[in-house]
Write a structure and sequence with these properties.
By secondary structure, this protein is α/β, with parallel strands linked by helices. The protein is built from 11 helices and 13 strands.
Length: 310
């Protein structure tokens, strides 16, 4: 079984959407990624840092899903990372109200010895310097290094981000982030520019308008499943990334064809994440529900057309 190492935040979120509010609920990039990846056959370990205020039973829930949490260090007399966000009425844009880094002030990711040879390394959204520190601790180059990032690092820590981009194979970002990194409006031009910065594969997420995968001159698109109810988009991007890497790690196939399926697997899982606040929906999700929705996905996108030569 392949080993997946996830490095990112395990945190508290305060979320306000047009449909309600929730404060100090569990979130974090690594939390969403690992929950999504737990739907696949692989060994996974999370590296993060939390304060004494983080609910211990949440770590137990992760462990019960075969997620190795020995890389999540606890500093008892400090507070966990806390992020507050408010979504606009259309849920497509959001404003960060507060980022309290708290315990993250002294975060130096420590990769457990048994995961320094991980086959897949998923760098969730954290400071690019910490992402680089994680890469540097690996004993051998993973088969695939994936990275997610946000506007904050693109605008405030661009040089460090560009350094770490040289080391990664896949970048997963949204359309605004792609435009900001590349200074290009066209997403095709943006992807081409980003590929020159290091990643051989560029994933551009467009929220409810689906996701694009670029590699060399090839492009693939997967739609987002049209949903009746979207409650809270927090973590959708991370859940997508967890599903994407989970599919690749469990199938051990890095062809572009298989990446297309990974894109669908990630989009499928992300469609559940947004149905409830925080990680609630992902906690109750069953394998059967995942498969059933995958069938809906297939129906949504499959069509037969006869094309005669002209
Ligand atoms: P997403 O909605 O997929 O972009 O991910 C949201 C998650 O990212 C939330 O659960 C936050 O706790 C986490 N997050 C937001 N900002 C940061 C940051 N600056 N560093 C690390 N994690 C963050």
């Amino acid at each position: 079984m392949n080993k997946l190492l996830v490095v990112g935040s395990v945190a508290f979120d305060g979320i306000e959407t047009p449909f309600g509010k929730a404060d100090k609920i569990v979130g974090g990039s690594a939390t969403y990624i690992s929950l999504a990846a737990s739907y696949f056959k692989l060994n996974q370990c999370v590296v993060s840092l939390i304060g004494g205020d983080f609910p211990k039973n949440y770590l137990e829930m992760l462990k019960a899903r075969n997620i190795d949490t020995s890389g999540i260090k606890v500093i008892e007399n400090e507070e966990s990372f806390y992020w507050k966000v408010k979504y606009d009425n259309d849920l497509n844009s959001r404003e960060t109200l507060l980022t309290a880094i708290n315990v993250f002030e002294n975060f130096n990711p420590q990769i457990p010895e048994s995961y320094k040879d991980a086959d897949f390394l998923m760098l969730g959204n954290i400071h690019p310097r910490l992402q680089m520190q994680a890469i540097e601790q690996m004993n051998k180059r993973p088969k695939l290094i994936l990275l997610d990032t946000i506007n904050l690092w693109i605008s405030e820590n661009r040089d460090e981000l560009l350094e770490v981009l040289k080391e990664v194979d896949v970048i997963s970002i949204n359309n605004e982030e792609a435009r900001e990194i590349s200074n290009e409006y066209s997403l095709v031009k943006a992807a081409k520019k980003i590929m020159k910065m290091g990643p051989k594969y560029v994933i551009i997420k467009k929220g409810e308008h689906g996701v694009l995968l670029f590699h060399k001159d090839a492009v693939f698109f997967a739609p987002a499943l049209p949903l009746e109810e979207v409650f809270d988009p927090t973590g959708a991007g991370d859940t997508f990334a967890g599903g994407f890497v989970g599919h690749l790690a469990s199938t051990s196939n890095l062809s572009f064809e298989n990446m297309k399926l990974a894109l669908v697997a990630g989009s499928n899982l992300a469609s559940f994440c947004v149905e409830k606040f925080g990680t609630q929906r992902m906690e109750s999700l069953t394998q059967e529900e995942v498969y059933r929705r995958l069938r809906n996905f297939k129906q949504l996108t499959q069509f037969d057309i006869e094309l005669n030569e002209v």
